[in-house]
Each structure stands twice: as structure tokens, then as C-alpha cells.
Amino acid sequence: MAHQRTNLFFLVCVLLYALSVLGGKSYYDVLQVQKGASDDQIKRAYRKLALKYHPDKNQGNEEANKKFAEINNAYEVLSDREKRNIYDRHGEEGLKQHAAGGGRGGGMNMQDIFSSFFGGGTAEEEEEKIVKGDDVIVELDATLEDLYMGGSLKVWRDKNVIKSAPGKRSCNCRNEVYHRQIGPGMFQQMTEQVCEQCPNVKYVREGDFLTVDIEKGMQDGQEVVFYEDGEPKIDGEAGDLKFRIRTAPHERFKREGNDLHATITITLVQALVGFEKTIKHLDEHLVDISSKGVTKPKEVKKFKALVRSFDIKNCHIRTF
């Protein structure tokens, strides 16, 4: 009996890091483009994000409104060649000094920027005008270590790409209505499809590696979006590529929300008189676990502790 072992389920209620979504991001990060992005890439990124986070589509959502304001602020700078050059060299402080010295500063509010870009249409109207390809959704397993400390994954992406091809094709087709006189005072309404002639195109399969950033504390089902990296659309915009995060199985821990669960084993003697154990956390630091007195089968004990900078909530030990 002294060597009989009983499984002890130890719930390590460790709060995962929660980073601010926009905290510390550059204007390029806000628009989700690279620092060397072209003017056209910046415009496309702004259009997608501005339509997504427009207040008309997110009424009562303060986080979306804040995001919309930051998107417009970033676009106002990066769409202006002079401001962008100053920002690239000296950051936001350089922009402030430039404005204080008599240079062109800010001033346009976010709705003015949106209206000047879209020509006064509402978010819903502008979004309906966009012909898009299909979104591609990929389930991506992230390790508990990456979800706890942050990390990145290299993913191979094989997709259709539109390339030039010989010849011409009909494009920008539209219906035109006209009236034809068929007798005295009699007219017949006619509809005719009119198309333009555009350079021909074809689909070609190409592949490349993408880097998917895993932020600390991401939840299952959260998505990392690569805009216009989904299925392409001739005479339209490509859909989006979305990596949907899932927590991969782990050999020592199981995640439930923001809690980590681990199973340890103690002897019958330890269950009767108490025990001290040490487990290795996800970032490799050691966590001391102890209990005094009898640990009864099915009994749950709650205690509080501090592990480095993380507050452990009510943690439970339960025997089986």
C-alpha cells in the first residue's frame, strides 16, 4: 500500500499574458503592410480595414471605433509622401516637430479621410461595389509555449495567381438600355450587353512561405488575416487568407480558457500526510506545489500563490 499511487489533478490557474491589440504598433503595423509597401498597397490595405472597422458597421463597439481612428491616422501619414518620409526617418516625434515648425500637420478628421477616399459613399455601399474572390480559412495549431510567450510559425502557401496571357478578352461588361421606334408613336425598349476589350489573363499556381505571428494569450478561434491573399478574382479583388488559431495538444498541460491544467502523481503516503512537488512551467521556470495533511479522493483544495509576475487565481487539487 505504501507504494500505491493515486493520480492528482492539479489545476494551475495561471493567467496568460494579454497584449494590447494596437499597443506599440507603427503606422505600418496598423495598416498591416510592410515598411516598403507601395502607395497602391497602402491604399488597398486602408480600404479593407476602413470598411471593416467603420462606425456604421460597428455601432456601440468602442474598440472598433478606436481601431478606425488609428487606421485613418496611419493612412493620413503614409499616403502623404512628405509626411511618410519624415515618419520613416524620425517617427511620430518628427511629425510633431515638423507641424510645429510650420509644416503641414494633421487636421482632417477620420470621416473626412474616409469620404475623400471613397467619394462620400457609406461603408455598406462601398463594400457592395467590391467584387471579391473567396476567402480561404486554414486551421492552424499553435503550441502552448507560443500562446503563452508569443511566437511565429512558417507556413507554406500554394495559391492561384493571375498572370498576363496572349490575346484579348471581354471585360467590364454592362447592360445598356435604349429604345427603338417600331411604328408611329411606338417604341420598344431594348437591352444590350456592352463589353470592353482587355488584355487576357490566366491562373498560375505559385507558392511561398508566410510568417504567421502568434500573440501572447490568443484564444482558440482567433484569426490572423492576410488581406487579399485568398482566392483571386479576375476584374476584382482577391479574398482574404485567414489562419484560425487552435491550441495544439501538449504533453504536460491542457488549456481551458486562460487556465492551465496539469496532472501529477503522488504516493498514497503523500496523499495521507502531505507532499511537496515541483513542476516545470511553459517558459521552463519551476513552480513549487505543496499540500499539508490528508488529500482525500475527489477532494478539491483551493489556494493562492504567486508565480513570478503572474497572479494565480484559486487553484485546485483533486484526487482520483
TrEMBL record:
Its main location: endoplasmic reticulum. Residues 1-23 form the signal peptide. This is J domain-containing protein. It is found in: Endoplasmic reticulum. Residues 26-91 form the J domain. The keyword Chaperone applies. The keyword Glycosyltransferase does not apply. GO terms for molecular function: unfolded protein binding. GO terms for biological process: protein folding. It comes from Protea cynaroides. Keywords: Chaperone, Endoplasmic reticulum, Signal. It comes from the Eukaryota. SMART domains: DnaJ. SUPFAM superfamilies: Chaperone J-domain, HSP40/DnaJ peptide-binding domain. GO terms for cellular component: endoplasmic reticulum.
